Amino acid sequence: MSLTPAAPSTTRASKRRFRALGLSAVLTVAAALTGVAAAPARAATAVGITVNAGSGLGTIPSGAIGLNTAVYDGNMNDAAAPGLIKAAGINALRYPGGSYSDIYNWQTNTTQGGYVAPNTAFSNFMGTAQAAGASPVITVNWGTGTPALAAAWVQSANVTNHDNIQYWEVGNEVYGNGTYGANWEADSHCTTSASGGPVTIGSEPSQTYNCGPGTYANGVLSYMSAMKAASPNIHVCAVLTTPGGWPDNVTNATTSPQSWNQTVLTALGSKTDCVIVHYYPGGSDAAAMMNDPSQISGIVSTLKSEISQYAKVDPTGVKIITTEANSDVDMDTQPNALFAADMYMTWMENGISNIDWWDQHNGPGTNPPSVVQGVQDYGDYGLLSSGGSSAGVTEPAVDTPFAPYYGIEMLSRLGAPGDAMVAANSGNPLVKVHAVRRANGNLDLLVENEDPNNPYTANLTYNGFTPSGGATVQTYANGATSITSTTQSSASSVTVAPYSLTVLQLSGGAATTPPGPPGQPTVSNLSSAGSGGNTGSATLGWPAATAGTYPIAGYQVLRTGSGGTGSTVVGSPTGTAFNLTGLTVGSSYTYDVVAVDTKGGTSLPSQPVTFTVPPPGSTGGGSGCAVHYAVTNSWPGGFGSSVTITDNGSSAISGWNLTFTLPSGEAVQSGWNGTFSQSGQNVSVANLSWNSTIAANGGSVGIGFNGTTTGPATAPAAFAVNGTACSTD
């Protein structure tokens, strides 16, 4: 986030750079609940919700629910701050604040050309973080700093003061340094022309040189070396572009001949241990904005694919963190509260370790404020009020929470770090659901009604869980200034009001102690069938569960559907290993394991394991062909891709047909150097007369196409030439 102080007491956001592609819908504005004029009562519409309590999506990470703080915010360390942060369940704080990170000197507590508010030095920040029980996330100065300055910060914090800070970012939105023609991020590495000429910080041209992704990547390696010399076990995180958002996959022959992510990850290679993206999806209206979290799965999948392809490391060992996230639609009102809760849960369900809301305090926007469902919106990106005025409208008193604060607080009613997230599905896209199995075996559900007009009655079906008794119901209603709590006798349904968040807390009622969860499965013997084959196999193994009241009789191995939708029991072994066969080459699979005792009692699910079946050649089977696929450009609703087919065999390929399956939401629009056809998501490309032969021993043919997409453009999982699966690079 790029911020420019308008005055010591208030700041205003000046840039919105990420625009995710969302579904467009029109929702009629209507009066809502607490604190606003009441609408006529409407009959609730039934919707089915299914919870698959044995289908694990991972545990809630420690330090995942984060918030940005900034050195220009005079209210950062107000006396009320620690209590408000802790009450919301926020357990991470990012410092020193967006673009200011790249002009901030932590030793002198000064910024080059910026404003630092009193009592916002690192020691003041740490006092608030420690009082709130929140883990710091620190952005070191790439723009005007040095590796030595960053290493000294790590030394002071982790060695001298024993602060045990794990996540350290190298720079903020570094790609905003003018490399791609937009300049909001200070970067002293830049020059005004390809031949030289230093840039004066504060007067950067719109196009800069000698500071593109290659310069940044090499710099990260220098920072990493210096910082890990001070504290070896920290995560040093590199800035990446968000898949599907500007400037993802933008290239420039002079300053960035390959994409930012490809350049950075290729340079980092095996040293890649943590990467950063920012997430500002926006949306044309509230409905589109609230639908945007559905794209997070594709964003994460693309990042993992890029880490594997370019860094050539196992992406499961690389931390991904989202250190800025917010929307620019109805920012202080209920739609953004609904967005916040859904967004945080969706990132975590996809394995993200930390998500930080922008911002603790920000100040009202410059556009005329609006009223949303009877509630005043101030255009303020802050979670808490700054007490400022804009366009004749004055915010409430400083530190008054806005609606997204309560949306985040609802997550603390849903689960805690270490609890297991499990799959849940709704029969209506306006009613979102997330589910968590508590450490004691109980089950909590978050039900979000994103319809501004209509209530719904959610009829609940449970697989792998039997509720006992009624439920505690926590609710945050439109316009409310607190979360309310009631009880109900039924666990089979709950009615949710328009524009509301509801957490249903259920007891499992077990009279006996269930087994403990098995350890996280690991994958061994992963292989494809070799040349000419398109199926693979693997072996799952896991640490045994501990028995509860009754002995363990065996296990259930469950496969989770794409996007966490549903689960299927694929085996019931009595031991701690299970062979998987008939796997599709290039496809990704997610499994978890549940322990079952001699009385049929089940454990919480293990942590899931996700893997992709490699093409022949990746596991020593040998493939006669290789395919390189790259997204070369992207724009709202579309993308361009290049594909290179290489003959690795000893005989030429005479006449070829390339087949692959595009991810959901993608389609070929036009292609070149081949005859393209598409049926569903399956694409076939036949040679033309002039490129029908691919020479042996490394000969290649290049094709390409432009496509349409409803989300981030992601790579197909697997390719085959004339029916033979190819390796990928």
From TrEMBL:
Stretches assigned to the Fibronectin type-III domain: 517-616
Record's keyword terms, sorted: Carbohydrate metabolism, Glycosidase, Hydrolase, Polysaccharide degradation, Signal
Keyword field contains Signal: yes
Matches recorded under SUPFAM superfamilies: (Trans)glycosidases, Carbohydrate-binding domain, Fibronectin type III
Organism superkingdom: Bacteria
Name of the protein: Cellulose binding domain-containing protein
CDD domains recorded: FN3 (cd00063)
PANTHER family xref list: ALPHA-L-ARABINOFURANOSIDASE C, ALPHA-L-ARABINOFURANOSIDASE C-RELATED
Organism listed in the record: Streptacidiphilus alkalitolerans
Keyword hit for Cytoplasm: no
Positions of the UniProt region annotated as Disordered: 508-537
Residues of the CBM2 domain: 618-729
Entries under InterPro entries matching the protein: CBD2 (IPR001919), CBM2/CBM3_carb-bd_dom_sf (IPR008965), CBM2_carb-bd_dom_sf (IPR012291), FN3_dom (IPR003961), FN3_sf (IPR036116), GH (IPR017853), Glyco_hydro_b (IPR013780), Ig-like_fold (IPR013783)
